[in-house]
Write a structure and sequence with these properties.
This protein is mainly α. The chain has a single domain, classed as MFS general substrate transporter like domains (Growth Hormone, Chain: A, Up-down Bundle), CATH 1.20.1250.20. The chain is built from 19 helices and 2 strands. It has a two-stranded antiparallel ribbon. The chain is globular, with a radius of gyration of 22 Å.
Length: 444
């Protein structure tokens, strides 16, 4: 290996590690949402339906900003797009300071989350495609999988941070509202993002040769579907499936803490409340300061399963086709949600964390399957996939409304059930959908 080639490899590795750090940032921001719903219900006394607007503000920003971000990145490039996104994320994180110290209203926090998520939308639109082209084409999938590992680590850390800081002490009735536990992680996040911004400002990421990428696509022209995107069923139904799946994932995330707390408490023959013994033991082992903190630590276990599923799922695809594995995992999650809806006291909460194990592969699998054989339309198609994340803005308010209306968390999981049926059907139907897309191009 020549000196120049070694230097190039080191440059690519450094650039990859820097961009991969962004996966950790948005993974942390998303995972922190899992404890915010219950926190605002406790502190600001909002209803479950109102707390669902946390996810609406976050994923609504993705819907509104993904496509404009894609157009902007095409004009200014990946690196400047990342820098812009980082600055907006830091701004949103620091907006938690006035929201928590002066305004102390639910809507002020939603505004901060919307600004922060607008920056995340820009970063994700730039970072995902950049990682795939940062190096040899044959290693694109492996690079993206490694980058997603940073995301998985953040998903494990965030609920633990939330349990320790946000639910670390009980709020006394009548006492002044104290948001210090909530401000700490977001102020630290803002500072870290500024450091990353500074590093990205002084380094030069390797530029992407779009002409070379297009020539590669041209060499594989026989495998590229030439029909417009709206006439390619595997893409169109991939968008619909992603929308419904994200609605399910975010809905489960948003109300998992609520559900666990409701399920671990039952009434004995005399009508007295009895807390699940295993849940109480877990709270004592983890040193949880409150039942809410214990439930947040249960979500930490769920996120470990999520990370394990992401790594093992990639290995399983060596022997099982991705579309079939997607369907099998969809069936598994449908069964889990049915057990959750049955609301078997002291039992269903133990099953719920396994939902994350089977969710782990769904977003990247649906994303990759829907973009297959799209050639030069891939970048545009990817922006539509990111826009489909708006499903996460729709489900939580509806789930919260159902929970408030029927005074039961179990009933609201009917929406995630529908969301998990979608990838099950899409996986089984995928070969036929792909063939229809090919034929649509042949007759165009």
């Amino acid at each position: 290996m020549t000196h120049n080639s070694k230097k190039l490899n080191h440059t690519l590795l450094f650039a990859f590690l820097m961009v991969a750090s962004l996966f950790f940032i948005w993974g942390f921001c998303h995972a922190m949402l899992d404890v915010l719903n219950k926190h605002f219900q406790n502190i600001l006394h909002v209803s479950k339906a109102q707390s669902g607007f946390i996810q609406t503000s976050v994923f609504g920003a993705y819907f509104l900003l993904a496509f404009p971000s894609a157009l902007l990145i095409r004009r200014i490039g990946y690196q400047k797009g990342i820098l812009l996104g980082l600055m907006v994320v830091a701004t949103g994180a620091f907006l938690f300071i006035p929201a928590g110290l002066w305004f102390k209203t639910f809507w002020s926090f939603l505004y901060a989350l919307f600004v922060l998520s607008s920056g995340l939308a820009c970063i994700e639109t730039a970072a995902n495609p950049y990682v795939t082209v940062l190096g040899p084409k044959d290693g694109a999938a492996a690079r993206l999988s490694v980058a997603q590992a940073f995301n998985s680590v953040a998903y494990i850390i965030a609920p633990t941070v939330g349990g320790a800081l946000i639910f670390g002490k009980r709020h006394q009735a009548g006492a002044p509202v104290d948001f210090s536990g909530l401000l700490i992680p977001y102020v630290v996040l803002g500072c870290v993002v500024l450091v990353v911004f500074g590093v990205f400002s002084f380094i030069k990421l390797p530029s992407i040769d779009d002409d070379a990428a297009n020539s590669d696509a041209g060499a594989l022209e026989s495998f590229v579907h030439t029909a417009p995107l709206n006439r390619q069923p595997h893409f169109v139904w991939g968008i619909v499936t992603q929308f419904l799946y994200i609605a399910a994932q975010v809905g489960v995330n948003a109300f998992a803490v609520n559900y666990i707390l409701e399920n671990v408490v039952a009434k004995d023959a005399s009508g007295a409340a009895v807390t699940d013994a295993l849940f109480s033991w877990y709270g004592s082992v983890t040193g949880a300061a409150s039942p809410e903190a214990t439930a947040a630590y249960v979500i930490t276990i769920a996120m470990i399963l999520y990370a394990a599923g992401r790594f093992s799922g990639a290995a399983i695809t060596k022997v099982v086709k991705p579309n079939l594995l997607l369907s099998l995992y969809g069936i598994a999650n449908c069964i889990i949600i049915l057990i959750v809806m049955a609301d078997i006291k002291h039992v269903s909460w133990l099953v719920l964390p396994f939902c994350w194990l089977f969710m782990s592969i769904m977003f990247p699998f649906i994303f990759a399957m829907s973009l297959r054989n799209l050639g030069e339309k891939t970048k545009l198609a990817a922006s539509f996939q990111i826009m489909s994340i708006v499903g996460g803005a729709v489900a939580p308010p509806l789930m919260g409304w159902l929970a408030d209306r029927y005074h039961s968390m179990a009933i609201c999981f009917i929406l995630p059930l529908i969301g998990f049926i979608a990838p099950t059907v899409y996986g089984f139907a995928y070969p036929k959908l792909l063939e229809k897309s090919r034929l649509a191009g042949a007759t165009a």
